[in-house]
Amino acid sequence: MRDLEKASYPQRVAVLGLGYVGCVTAACLAKLGHRVIGVDRDEFKVAEVNQGRAPFYEPGLEGLVEEAARAGRLSATTNLGACVDECDIALICVGTPSEPNGNIGLGQLRRACEEISGHLPRRTRPLIVVVRSTVFPGTCEEVVIPALGDRSKFTLVSNPEFLREGVAVKDFVEPALVVVGGDDPDAVRRVASLYDALEIEPCLVSLRTAEMIKYACNCFHALKIGFANEIGSLCSRLDIPANEVMATLCADHRLNISPAYLKPGFAFGGSCLPKDLRALTYRASRLDLDLPLLQHVMASNDAHLKRAIERVLALGSVKLGVFGLAFKENTDDLRESPVVTLIEQLIGKGRELRIFDPHIQLDQIYGSNRQFVLNAIPHIGRLMVADIGSMLSWADAIVITQRPAADAGDLIHGAQKPLIDLSTMEMPGRAAVRRSDAGWVKTLTPTVS
Ligand SMILES: NC(=O)c1ccc[n+]([C@@H]2O[C@H](COP(=O)([O-])OP(=O)(O)OC[C@H]3O[C@@H](n4cnc5c(N)ncnc54)[C@H](O)[C@@H]3O)[C@@H](O)[C@H]2O)c1
Predict the structure, then answer these.
(1) pLDDT mean over 214-241
(2) pLDDT tens, residue by residue, 256-295
(3) Is a pLDDT exceeding 80 seen at residue 324?
(4) Which atom of ligand 1 is nearest to the CA of 17?
C-alpha cells in the first residue's frame, strides 16, 4: 500500500459500529493519520480492536488494525459518552437491515442517534454527525435530525460508504467515488477533508442527493448483474459464448460503458430499441427461458411515458405547443416515437396542439416512417407548423420532448410561457457546494436550456 499517512489536517473521529463498514473505516482513517475511536455495543469487537486484531476476516484489515492500535491512533470502547466528548466528528456506521416487508430497518440508527443525543449537552461546540450507513433519501432529515435533538449541538452530513466486502480496504484507499452531502459548507468541507490523503475529488451534494446516490449505485450494480446474467443465459441456450459477448459489449466505451443512455429524460422509442427488445424476449420465451428483467424494460418505458402524459395534462392548459415529434433530436424518424403516443393521448383528453420539429416536414417523409404517424394520427398534417415562432405565439404552454438546439431553446424560454421539459429531469437553480480553484464554493445548477 502506498504511503497514505499524510492527512493534512488530522482529526479526532468517533466511528459508531465496528461491523464491516465501521471497522474498515476506522482502521483506514487511522491509517490516513486521523485519531479514531471505534464504538460498538459488542464487547468482543471492541476487545479485538483494542488487541490489534480485526473482529472479522477482510483482506488487509488485520494488519491495519494492528498497526493503528500499536501507533495509538485507533482504540475502541463500548462507552459512547467519552467519544462524544473527545471527538469532532462522529461517523455512524450501524446496520440498516431489511424489515420483513422490505422496508429499511432504522432501529439501530435511531438508537445510535438517541445515544449520541444524550451526550451532546456537555459539548461546547457542535459535533459533526456523519451518516455513513445506507439510508433511504429523507432519513437524515426525518429520522436522524429529530433523534439527535438540539440543533445547536450538531451539524449533519451524509457520507455513504461504497466499499465491497472482500476488497473493502482497497476500495477505501483507492475509492472509485467519495460522496459528501450536507447543507453546512464548513461541515461538508471538514468531512471531505478526511479523505485529503486519497487521490480522489469528493463529490459534494445535498443530504438527500447523497442518500440517493448510494441507492442509485447499488441498484445499478444489481441491474448490471441481472442484465449480464440474462444475456448470459440466452447465450448459453443459443450455444454462444456468454463471456465473449459481454466482454465485447464492454469494449465499447462510447455507448455501453459510458454515461451514454444514463441521463434521466423522456421515454425511448425509435425503430430499433423497442423492436429488438420485443424480438429478443419473444425468442427467449420460445426457448422456455424466463428473462424478467429484459421482459419488463418495455413496461418500464410505458410507465415512464404515462407519467410524462400525466405531467402534461396536469398543466391544465388547453392549447399546447409541442417541440419535437421524432423519438429524439436530429432525426426525422417517427417510427415508435413516444411523442406520437403522447400526442394521441393529449388529443384524446381534449387538448389542442401545434407541433414543431426542426427536422420534420410531413410532405418530405415517406415509407414506414410516414405510415406510422399517419396510422396513429391521420390529421397530423393539420397540427404541424413550419416555424417555431407561430407555435410559440399560439400556445398557452410548451412541452419539450427532445433537447432543442441553442437558438430554439432561447426562443422557447424567451416566450415565457409555462413549460414542461420532458427531455431532461434537471432541476434548475439547485445549490451545490463544489471545490473550485478558489476553494469550496456554492454553485447553482445551470438553468435548463
Ligand atoms: N457491508 C457492506 O459491504 C456495506 C457496504 C456499503 C455500505 N454498507 C452499509 O453500511 C451500514 C453498516 O453495514 P455493516 O455491514 O458494517 O453492518 P454490520 O451489521 O456488520 O455492523 C453494524 C455494527 O453496528 C453495531 N451497532 C449497532 N447499534 C449500535 C449502537 N447503538 N452503538 C454502537 N454500535 C452499534 C453492531 O454491533 C455492529 O457491530 C449498513 O447501512 C449497510 O447497508 C454496507
Answers:
(1) 98
(2) 999 999 999 999 998 899 999 999 999 999 999 999 999 9
(3) yes
(4) 24
Measured in Å, residue 284 CA sits from the centre of ligand 1 at: 41
17 Cα–ligand 1 center, Å:
6
Of the residues 180, 211, 242, the one at which a domain ends: 211
Q: Where a domain ends, among 211, 246, 266?
A: 211
Within 6 A (CB) of ligand 1 lie 16-22, 39-42, 45, 93-96, 108, 111-112, 115, 133-134, 161, 163, 165
3-state DSSP call for residue 320?
A: strand
Q: How many domains does the chain have?
A: 2
24, 25, 40: residue to mutate for ligand 1 pocket, most atoms within 8 A of CB? 40
Same domain, 193 and 306: no
Q: What is the pLDDT of residues 351-373, one digit of tens each?
A: 999 999 999 887 777 787 788 78
Mean pLDDT of 298-304: 97
Residue of the CA atom closest to atom 20 of ligand 1: 19
Instruction: Specify the CATH number for the domain of residue 397.
Output: 3.40.50.720
Q: Could you tell me the distance, in angstroms and rounded to a whole number, from the CA of residue 133 to the centre of ligand 1?
A: 7
Residues acting as catalytic residues: 272
Atom of ligand 1 at shortest range from CA of 168: 3
205 and 310 belong to one structural domain: no
User: Is residue 282 in some structural domain?
Assistant: no
Residues 185 and 312 in one domain: no
- The domain of 49 spans 12-211
pLDDT in the model for residue 68 = 98
Give pLDDT tens digits for 144-179.
999 999 999 999 999 999 999 999 999 999 999 999
Give residue 427's pLDDT: 67
